[in-house]
Write a structure and sequence with these properties.
The protein is α/β, with parallel strands linked by helices and about 160 residues long. The chain has a single domain, classed as Response regulator (Rossmann fold, 3-Layer(aba) Sandwich). Helix content is about 45%, strand content about 15%. The chain has helices at about 15-30, 50-60, 75-80, 90-100, 130-155, and strands at about 5-10, 35-40, 85, 105-110. Strands 2-1-3-4 form a four-stranded parallel beta sheet. Helix 1 (about 15-30) packs across helix 5 (about 130-155) and helix 2 (about 50-60) packs across helix 5. The radius of gyration is 14 Å and the shape is globular. Bound molecules: 4-nitrophenyl phosphate. 4-nitrophenyl phosphate binds next to loops. The site of 4-nitrophenyl phosphate has 10 residues, from loops.
């Protein structure tokens, strides 16, 4: 069964596009059949490409995210995706509030999937510098590896 994963941050221009890209690379490496997308809880950046600093850190790590465009998470996402994965605890609280009664999605924090980092946030790098984007990449890559391993294990069942 094809699984689906939606990554959610605030603006959908920094962390969740990076998580989407890191997870896509890892899913391809593992041969997972999975639908992958990202969205923001906020509406300020709808239709915008990723922040240029996010695109730059992705490029430094061999991934092109420049084609992505921001969108806002909506009620249908909870019926469409198996997993909705928030980047920080505020994003998680916001999607828990938006969750409709007939949601099928399992909600989690990305770093909940990393042993020893449960409950931790991928810090928002938007007001930071290049080093904060490098840290965000390292954290989303670690979370993506752990989440992909979990979904691969579930697929084997
Ligand atoms: P993101 O970062 O949630 O990782 O995409 C942010 C992007 C934009 C804003 C805040 C965080 N903003 O306030 O516009």
């Amino acid at each position: 069964m094809r699984k689906s994963v939606l990554f959610v941050c605030l603006g959908n221009i920094c962390r969740s596009p990076l998580a989407e890209a890191a997870f896509r690379a890892e899913a391809e490496r593992l041969g997972l059949d999975v639908e992958i997308d990202s969205a923001g809880t906020g509406d300020w950046h709808i239709g915008h490409p990723p922040d240029r600093r996010a695109a730059a850190v992705a490029a430094r790590n061999g991934v092109d995210i420049s084609h992505l465009r921001a969108r806002q998470v909506g009620p249908d996402d909870f019926r469409r995706f198996d997993h909705i994965v928030a980047l920080d605890e505020k994003n998680l609280a916001d999607i828990e509030r938006l969750r409709p009664a007939d949601a099928k999605a399992h909600l989690s924090l990305l770093l909940d999937h990393v042993a020893g980092r449960e409950g931790q946030a991928v810090a928002d790098p938007y007001y930071g510098d290049e080093a904060h984007f490098d840290t965000a990449w390292a954290e989303v890559a670690e979370g993506a590896r752990a989440l992909a391993a979990r979904i691969a294990a579930e697929a084997q069942g």
